[in-house]
Design goal:
This protein has 687 residues and is an alpha+beta fold. Helices cover 27% and strands 21% of the residues. This is 1,4-alpha-glucan branching enzyme.
Length: 687
């Protein structure tokens, strides 16, 4: 029914913003969206008046911290600590004397001192260690500088210290011709953690990753890697999400030059590199991090309870403070320019966007995205971040970890959005885990499956994934482990007909291809899950006697020709290859062709490919007929039942299928053998 307004009612004005024009339900909130744009423009004008440009504003790391001045020949050390009473630089160079080297405070709250080469050349050298001694109204503490480039841990005391890092020979990049847009038309992302990327019971290195893992990633067809835990963090078991030193390259895995080698090698192989950046919170440790740095209780963070994350036991940034904006924006510029990263996956965006941080909140009403619970300062910061990244590297990728569904998060700022490119489809892995935990295979509801995998905001791109690191953490299990449980340890020999493994192998393939084909405009896989890596991820800790057993990747399982893991890896390579070749993820949303609850068959078309999933536990259907968009001759491109994927080879992969008109002559049907627990992918041949 169409409702027309009364003659006395004002006719609503046409929407100003493309975001609102596409989604009329946003019309009542257009003033909020316009106010966000206006506030951003006002802040940019303020920054330009004081710093000439946003990009120059984001150069704080070249002033603050320890930086070498080639013109004056010496080091400057500067630290922003407005509430502190005194600062002293201490380290190897002065015998750690807390009174020997005081800094002077400037009117902007920045303390500084110059260290000329003529006096410090032989003392303040590459590799030497240092800290800053901060005296406040209540205590005096040795702290790690906020802008340090490298922190190292003493093996005996476990104490962290900053380290002077100015090698005589700078790293020589050879990736000048690499452009993200030339190699990444649609992102196929391999999420990985360098430390756990080795099979041995120890921490892996940047160099090992470059030499052994990057070739695997390239062979599998992924065109992006997403590096976790690069920003320095004191507790290894935090997975890198409790960051202490935002400009520090984690020294657990090697040197800054070795990280640069990894990125350079990835670019040589045509692989973009994304940094998992954590600007949503910071570790609350005072010995290693920024908490209470100048004694004010706030400085980088909100004062009081607002500065504490209730679920993460960490500190929350004050995004409205200019110095905090500058710190975080400079951090983005540093990683883009110093290490040639190609973009960022922003962690914890939901926590940033709302005062309630998404804790225990269900999002079901548009007013929740524009009301008083939204942190407008965080929205402004994210818009500034997107603007800066676009200025510095136009083709960079920006991915938001957001489960709230904030409208416009992944639309350009000019259209009323916040400026990200992609949002992680966090509901999809949750759906699969819940389904496997609580629903028998024969009771799967294909309408729910279709809705969950296709339900996303029109005009905003999504990264689909069946499982990420979240699903692999101790306390949960990977999809392969949920599917095969204990049999994954005892029945994975290629000649073993175990029915539990047969079911698990089949569903693992179906789940991953359904997610890729339906779930978004990009696809993500967590390291090792492509071959069904067993077990969970559990980093060394007191509770497991500091063991690395669960913090590694057992590549030998996939490489062993006698085990079935190889077949899952082969299927992953085949489905990614097909999706890339056919530009599947650029094709828009899938079109439903048939949802058949009786036979548990789901058929749909996307990008010219016809997918037929049969989820039935034991019922295959000969002469299964369904309508297809175009008549003609169809060829089978991918068959999960193929023997090379540990299938039963129940159909001929070389077969050609011709459509037939239906009895009414109004449509064209394809007739196939819809084999159970398998997916078949067809493409219409021209001519």
């Amino acid at each position: 029914m169409t409702i027309t307004p009364e003659a006395t009612e004002p006719i609503p004005a046409a929407p100003t913003l493309p975001l609102v024009a596409q989604d009329p339900w946003l019309a009542p909130y257009e003033p909020v969206l316009l106010a966000r744009q206006a506030r951003l423009q006002q802040r940019l004008r303020e920054i330009e008046a004081q710093h000439e440009s946003l990009s120059k504003f984001a150069l704080a790391h070249e002033r603050l911290g320890l930086n070498y001045d080639g013109r004056r020949r010496g080091y400057w050390y500067r630290e922003w600590a407005p509430a502190a009473d005194a600062l002293y630089l201490i380290g190897d160079f002065n015998g750690w004397d807390r009174q020997a080297t005081p800094l002077e405070k400037g009117p902007d709250g920045v303390w500084e001192r110059f260290f000329p080469d003529r006096e410090y050349r032989d003392r303040l050298t590459h590799g030497s260690r240092y800290k800053v001694h901060v005296v406040t109204w209540r205590e005096a503490k040795d702290r790690l500088p906020a802008y340090l480039r490298r922190a190292v841990q003493d093996e005996e005391t476990k104490d962290f210290a900053a380290q002077v890092w100015y090698p005589e020979q700078p790293f020589r990049w050879t990736d000048q011709k690499f452009r993200v847009s030339n190699y990444v038309r649609e992102p196929f992302i391999y999420e990985c953690h360098v430390g756990m990327a080795t099979e041995e019971g120890r921490i892996g290195t940047y160099l090992e990753f470059a030499d052994t893992v990057l070739p695997r990633v390239q062979a599998l067809g992924y065109n992006c890697i997403q590096l976790m835990a690069v920003m320095e963090h004191p507790y290894y078991g935090s997975f890198g999400y409790h960051v202490a030193n935002f400009f520090g390259v984690s020294s657990r895995f090697g040197t800054p030059e070795e990280l640069k080698h990894l990125v350079n090698e990835a670019h040589r192989r045509g692989i973009a590199v994304l940094l998992d950046v954590v600007h949503s919170h910071a570790v609350k440790n005072e010995a290693e991090g920024l908490a209470n740095f100048d004694g004010s209780g706030g400085q980088y963070f909100h004062q009081g309870g607002r500065g504490e994350h209730p679920g993460w036991d960490s500190r929350l940034f004050d995004y409205g403070k200019p110095e905090v904006q500058q710190f975080l924006l400079s951090n983005l510029r540093y990683w883009l320019e110093e290490f040639h990263f190609d973009g960022f996956r922003f962690d914890g965006v939901t926590s940033m966007l709302y005062h309630h941080h998404g804790e225990g909140v269900g999002f079901g009403d548009y007013s929740q995205y524009f009301g008083p619970e939204v942190d407008d300062d965080a929205v402004l910061y994210l818009q500034l971040a997107a603007t800066l990244v676009r200025e510095l590297k136009r083709s960079a990728l920006l991915i938001a970890e957001d489960m709230s569904g904030m409208p416009g998060l992944c639309r350009p700022i000019s259209e009323g959005g916040i400026g990200f490119d992609y949002r992680l489809a966090m509901g999809i892995p949750d759906y699969w885990i819940k389904l496997l935990k609580h629903t028998r295979d024969e009771d799967w509801n294909l309408h729910d499956l279709w809705y969950t995998l296709t339900n996303r905001r029109l005009g905003e791109k999504t990264v689909a994934y069946a499982e990420s690191h979240d699903q692999a953490l101790v306390g949960d299990k990977t999809l392969a482990h949920w599917l095969m449980d204990a049999a994954i340890y005892t029945h994975m020999h290629k000649d073993d007909p175990d029915p539990i493994v047969a079911r698990g192998m089949a569903l693992h393939k179906l789940i991953r291809l359904a997610t890729l084909a339906l779930g978004g405009e990009a696809y993500l896989n967590f390291i090792g899950n492509e071959f069904g890596h067993p077990e969970w991820v559990d980093f060394p800790r007191a509770g497991n006697n500091w063991s690395h057993h669960y913090a590694r990747r057992q590549w030998s399982l996939a490489d062993n020709p006698d085990l079935k893991f190889q077949y899952l890896q082969a299927f992953d390579e085949a489905m990614v290859g097909l999706a890339r070749t056919e530009r599947l993820l650029a094709a828009g949303h899938a079109r439903e062709l048939n949802i058949d609850a009786t036979n548990q068959v789901l058929a749909f078309e996307r990008g010219g490919l016809v997918f037929v999933f049969n989820f039935h536990i034991n019922h295959s259907v000969p002469d299964y007929r369904f309508y297809v968009p175009e008549p003609g001759r169809y060829r089978l491109l991918l068959n999960s039942d193929d023997a090379r994927f540990d299938g039963f080879s129940r159909i001929n992969d070389e077969g050609v299928y011709f459509t037939q008109p239906d009895e009414e002559g109004t449509g064209h049907q394809l007739s196939i053998y819809a084999i159970n627990r398998a997916v078949l992918v067809f493409k219409r041949e021209e001519g």
